[in-house]
TrEMBL record:
<dbReference type="Pfam" id="PF05684">
    <property type="entry name" value="DUF819"/>
</dbReference>
<feature type="transmembrane region" description="Helical">
    <location>
        <begin position="77"/>
        <end position="95"/>
    </location>
</feature>
<feature type="transmembrane region" description="Helical">
    <location>
        <begin position="307"/>
        <end position="329"/>
    </location>
</feature>
<protein>
    <submittedName>
        <fullName>DUF819 domain-containing protein</fullName>
    </submittedName>
</protein>
<feature type="transmembrane region" description="Helical">
    <location>
        <begin position="34"/>
        <end position="57"/>
    </location>
</feature>
<keyword id="KW-0472">Membrane</keyword>
<feature type="transmembrane region" description="Helical">
    <location>
        <begin position="173"/>
        <end position="193"/>
    </location>
</feature>
<keyword id="KW-1133">Transmembrane helix</keyword>
<feature type="transmembrane region" description="Helical">
    <location>
        <begin position="249"/>
        <end position="270"/>
    </location>
</feature>
<keyword id="KW-0812">Transmembrane</keyword>
<feature type="transmembrane region" description="Helical">
    <location>
        <begin position="6"/>
        <end position="27"/>
    </location>
</feature>
<feature type="transmembrane region" description="Helical">
    <location>
        <begin position="282"/>
        <end position="301"/>
    </location>
</feature>
<feature type="transmembrane region" description="Helical">
    <location>
        <begin position="362"/>
        <end position="382"/>
    </location>
</feature>
<feature type="transmembrane region" description="Helical">
    <location>
        <begin position="222"/>
        <end position="243"/>
    </location>
</feature>
<dbReference type="InterPro" id="IPR008537">
    <property type="entry name" value="DUF819"/>
</dbReference>
<feature type="transmembrane region" description="Helical">
    <location>
        <begin position="102"/>
        <end position="123"/>
    </location>
</feature>
Length: 395
């Protein structure tokens, strides 16, 4: 990990990241090959290159108060704001049409993760050592519901700090790589799968965010969207702790503001406001840059390579199951990619994928599948961890 980056001030890092975002959008609009990749991949890859060259500081490995404020904004504020903005203007009518295929795609992804974790543990248990069953349980949870589950199951299973940090570093790199793959695979595999491009002959909202024709957006639209968005997140953050006390367990904050945003989009005219999709997409690209800046190859030390091998096997099996059976059951390739990302990265990366690729009809499903992963991932991870422990001690 770079000890001292070339650019460290908040405005300096902000200048580098916004320049990277602007160049990525320009490349997406100017060159057809880059438009196939999409701006998300360009920004993630650019962030990874810049951090490993020592141009900008890493977005991992430090306490939150020591992180660059640009990264803090992206993780703590940008993601909630972007999710709410995109849900307020989303096509919620698509949920009725996507319900069963989306849920089935998610179940395929979760099943692939569980099978993959068994296969990965069988190959790497000796190399990882005595805590193999713990890290396997954590990854089973994380690759059903995202990184929040990794932390929760690690605490439940008593993973040591060293192994926890090693797994987190490998997980961060693999999550970023899989974000790129779920953006590329639909382009490579589309000829063999149904596609939202063919849905009702409408194209299903498959166009990227770059060459979009922007509607007339007024200052009133932006001010009203900002007011609604901050109110939704603020009310959610205020109410959730009280609900936690009543139910007896912690509810992920994303569940609160997602629910409020969906209710407003369904029962109020807030979705008539213009600019939410464009503004939400732009903010998401700060998150992409932060993801890229967390891909620090030097963090894979000690047991890092064998832990990364564990994840490579897990994700390979996960992909075989979700895309293999998805083709057999004729599920749209874009839906499979979003469901896979909901499992691996959670609601924020699933929404980021759908939004950055222009799959507008999949935005609500992306968030809801990610929230479902949050809900079931911890149970699956703890159960799998205890099962792995039994297998390793009796075998």
């Amino acid at each position: 990990m770079p000890n001292e980056a070339l650019v460290t001030s908040p405005f300096g890092v902000g200048a580098v990241i916004t320049t990277l975002i602007a160049v990525s959008f320009w490349l997406d609009r100017r060159y057809r090959w880059f438009s196939f990749l999409g701006t998300a991949i360009l920004v993630i890859t650019g962030g990874a290159v810049l951090v490993n060259l020592g141009v900008i500081p890493p977005s991992i490995g430090q306490a939150s108060e020591k992180l660059n404020p640009i990264y803090v904004f992206s993780n703590d504020y940008g993601i909630p704001i972007a999710i709410v903005l995109l849900l307020l203007t989303a096509d919620l009518g698509s949920l009725r049409r996507l319900g069963r295929p989306a849920l089935f795609a998610f179940l395929l992804g979760a099943g692939g993760t569980l099978i993959g974790s068994v296969a990965a543990l069988w190959v790497t248990a000796e190399g990882i050592g005595s805590e193999a069953w713990k890290i396997a349980g954590q990854f089973a949870a994380s690759y059903i519901g995202g990184g929040v589950n990794y932390a929760a199951v690690g605490e439940a299973l008593g993973t040591s700090g060293t192994m926890f940090a090693t797994g987190a570093a490998a997980d961060n790199i693999m999550t970023n790589l899989w974000m790129v793959m779920t953006a590329v695979l639909p382009v490579l595999l589309i000829r063999w799968y149904p596609s939202i491009r063919n849905r009702d002959g409408s194209g299903g909202g498959t166009r990227g965010v770059g060459p979009r024709v922007i509607k007339d957006i007024t200052v009133y639209d932006l001010a009203a969207l900002a007011a609604v968005t901050f109110t939704v997140v603020g009310v959610s953050n205020f109410v959730i702790p009280y609900i936690d006390r009543v139910v007896g367990f912690a509810i992920p904050p994303v569940l609160g503001y997602t629910t409020l945003a969906l209710l407003l989009a369904l029962f109020t005219p807030v979705n008539r406001l213009r600019g939410g999709e464009e503004l939400g997409n732009f903010i998401l690209h700060f998150f992409f840059a932060t993801m890229g800046a967390g891909t620090v190859l030097s963090t894979l030390v000690d047991k890092g390579p064998v832990v990364f091998l564990f994840l490579a096997i897990l994700v390979f099996v996960h992909a075989l199951v979700i895309f293999g059976f998805g083709r057999l059951f004729r599920i749209e390739i874009e839906m499979l990619a979003v469901a896979s990302q909901a499992c691996v990265g959670g609601p924020s990366t699933a929404l980021a994928l759908a939004s950055s690729k222009g799959w507008a009809s999949l935005v609500p499903a992306a968030v809801l599948l990610g929230v479902l992963g949050y809900a079931v991932g911890n149970y699956a991870g703890v159960a799998m961890g205890q099962g792995f422990r039994w297998l390793l001690t009796t075998g």
